[in-house]
Amino acid sequence: MSVIELLKENLQQKWSFEKEMKIQTEMIPAMLEGKDIVAESPTGSGKTLAYTLPILNKVDGSKKAIQALIVAPSQELAMQIVEVIREWTAGSDITVQQLIGGANSARQIEKLKKKPTIVVGTPGRLNELMRSGKLKLKDVETIVLDECDQLLSREYRVVVKSFIDASAYGRQIVVVSATITEEIELVAARMMFEPVRIKITPDDIEQEGGKVVHSFIKVDERDKTDLLRRLANMEGVHGLAFVNNIDQVLMKENKLKYRDAAIVSLHSDMKKEERKKALDDFRKGEARILIATDVAARGLDISGLTHVIHVDVPRTIEQYTHRSGRTGRAGADGEVLTLLSYKDEKDYKKFIRDMKLKAVQKVWSNGEFIEGNSKTVAQTKNKGTEEKAKKNDDKKKYAPKSGKKERTFSKGKSSKKGK
């Protein structure tokens, strides 16, 4: 029996997928039973619907009270979750309100007075409204922490715990992320009651994705921006490029836009309207590469990514996994390309070895990235040049002279006059 059959009939009727993802198969029944959950599953594996559908199955839209709270670390992820919920609640009396930074707080407060069924927000704005008494969580029976590895880090831990403490007694707590460390799991367990542990690995969903090639190109640090420009000029590229800090995002954006490269960027200093325009331009294909930090790109749902580009080598295996999981989805092939400077070679090779991956080296040659290194490419070029020269020599040697018959050669003795 499909787990979708456990849901209310109206939700079953809206289900249009051929089959449920593995995380949904394991998580939906556990949530419907009211269990606390710690779920680890790769980016793009269907986590949002895995917790959204049980929430929609549980809440009562006719009851004017906030019954579920979903917390996300970034504005983009929060907005995406809201879009999913609105799609599934169309025509029903279930309402959802997003509470994110960068938006008009007065307008958000007015909408809170209407008592939405579900609230989706970022920690800062939620905390601000709760401390001012505008957001009351006493009726919240389900709390979801999406990207919990961030939300339960030292930066947000105290704030997130205050949301849980303010909610209804016996509430259900669900935490999900692509990577969950032992520390985060311990922190989560202290806030939960006998949590169910669900772990989906990339191997578990391999058949649902396409072939992903892991590659690298050796490059000096100062040449990385120009390499991004070349990538942005290649037909068919739709890539998400990661850098490790905002300063690098801004620097690369300025240099590339000056050279009219088809790129956009995403970082936390941007206004809400600027972020939306950047994402829209990228999704529509007007920009081929989106440059972002890990925080800004958290939870972004962008389909059809051909490349994930590590402009800066990730600091941890978890970070590499998080970034790389965005390509090769829905049966499509993808490539994870690392721009590898000399100082990062040791760390990168250790990551690849520990993850049991095979990385191929590539070089830039004749307007494209090809497999090989500078030595093999040079040898190929030399061989091609030699073969071309030989053909030209042969043509000269056997070409007939103007006004004379073409000479023929046979194995027999040639006749010569005077003998």
Textual characterization of the structure:
This protein is α/β, with parallel strands linked by helices. Helices cover 39% and strands 17% of the residues. It is built from 16 helices and 15 strands. The strands form 2 sheets. Strands 10-11-9-12-13-8-14-15 form an 8-stranded mixed sheet, sandwiched between helices. A 7-stranded parallel sheet has the order 3-4-2-5-6-1-7, sandwiched between helices. The longest helix is centred in the C-terminal third of the chain and has 25 residues, at 374-398. The termini are far apart. Residues 402-419 have low confidence and may be disordered.
Percent helix, as a range, is 25-40%
**Percentage of residues in DSSP E strands:** 15-25%
User: Given the helix and strand composition, which structural class is it?
Assistant: alpha/beta
Integer average pLDDT? 84
Cα separation of the termini: 99 Å
Our Rg estimate from Cα atoms comes to 29 Å
Envelope shape: globular
The total count of strands amounts to 15
Biggest sheet record? 8 strands, mixed
Across the major sheet, the strand order is: 10-11-9-12-13-8-14-15
Question: Unreliable segments (pLDDT under 50, ≥5 consecutive)?
Answer: 402-419
Q: What is the count of DSSP helices, taking H or I runs of 4+ residues?
A: 16
